[in-house]
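Sat 14:20. Reprocessing the chain from the morning session after the first attempt stalled halfway. Input below, unchanged.
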Amino acid sequence: MRLRPIALPAALAALALGVLAAPAQAAPEDEEPMVGVIVPEQIAVIAGQTKTVRAEVVNFGPEAVKDVVVSFANVDPALKLALPAGCDATSCPVGDIAADGRKILSFTIGSPGDKLVSAFEVGVGAFTSEVSVVRSEGGIDLELEPIDDLKIGRGQSAAVPITVHNAGSETVGTVGMVVMSEPSLTPLGDYRNCLPLDEVEQDADLSGLVCLFDEEFAPGATFRLPADSPIKIRVNKDAGGPFTYVAAAVAIGLNDEDAALLARQKSGKTLSLDAVSKASGFLDEEPDDLNLEDNIALFGVSVGKSVADSAAVGATFSGAGGDTKTIKVGVRNLGPTSVIPVSEDFEWFPSVRVTIPAGVELTEVDPFCMPDSDGDFSKPGTIDGHKYVCVADLGLGAGKLATFAFTGKLTGDESAAGSVVVDGGAQDNNHKNDKAAITVALTDQGGEGGGLPVTGAPTGWVALGGALLLLAGGAAAYLFRRRRIVTTL
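Finished this time. Tokens:
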């Protein structure tokens, strides 16, 4: 998967703000721990029923936080909020949370009684998220059980424990299941009713698997993947580390048109769901899922430390004074493993710093580069001076090259060489190739710019079509640390 087409320049702006996948920050003098609660912004509850909500309490900071307490405020009594054992009426202790760690807090809530909508607040310290509860007259409501984080060695695989409930009031005739992951992980499942994600959607760069379960799935039913024929996830041999990669399972009810996308495999073993509890009753039409967010179960896969040698790639502006030329500079990962993506706390991210020679007046800057001025990275693609910081493809694979285009007019004046300097972080144990030159070669009659050839922008992935694939797109946004937390301070 290439992050650049779908998440940049938004990701670059997030780098500037330092709040990607994190709650709004309190004032520095407050010294609030960076702990937030990820909950759905809206929860639909069927009238007369209760709904289980799983809140993710996350420590986004670089240090462990002790004695974390989640508070609930302004809760309408009609919602009949029920907190787990050990909580009081308005708060729940969840204990200590490690750096970049998380804990799941489950609670139940009812419909808003005579109201159509009610709201309450969930928070930790100064960080608060507002949740709206909407009364529903019924529908499909699939839920996935949370999946614990996994630790897998390079080249090894492990089963993904998947359990799905129908908490709604209507039956699903066909369930679609997607298991997808960041690069460096590969979901595995050689079954007749499963297809690789890139065969269902040819523009998909995500690593994933799509499976179809054509069986009656009534209200109150619970199914899980059988232990003897699981879907597995493998850590690729060249996966970079230390890093915790993110994967997700997604479940949704399908109509006939969506299901037809998967009717391609004609041989092999069929993957089935084991019934844990069953109910009966079937309706022909399948409306949209009432609560899409709990159709997604995220989990981490931690991988140990590895080496990735980042080498700078320079270039030459070649031509006569007055010529406009384009070069491409960048970074090549010499391996043997991939470069780890940006860390969640933004203490480090893989970067390429570019200094353009004074003999070039820039006219265009790569959209994934920003002026390198006092750490202000909020202006991607903006021309401002001669120094820039560029962000390469996240998770740059072994042997892969990431390039950035700069276009400028040659002044005709002699000038000192510029430079390309790469920062490969702790993985890069060879600093002899971290710097390369950007030079100007003046000619009498002009000529083509040196360096790498200019090619089109990388093709981004497109989520699957239909209801299943819209949700998969939503999961992908979650996957790459773009989970939104609504906060008030």
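Residues 311 and 433 are 5 Å apart (CA to CA).
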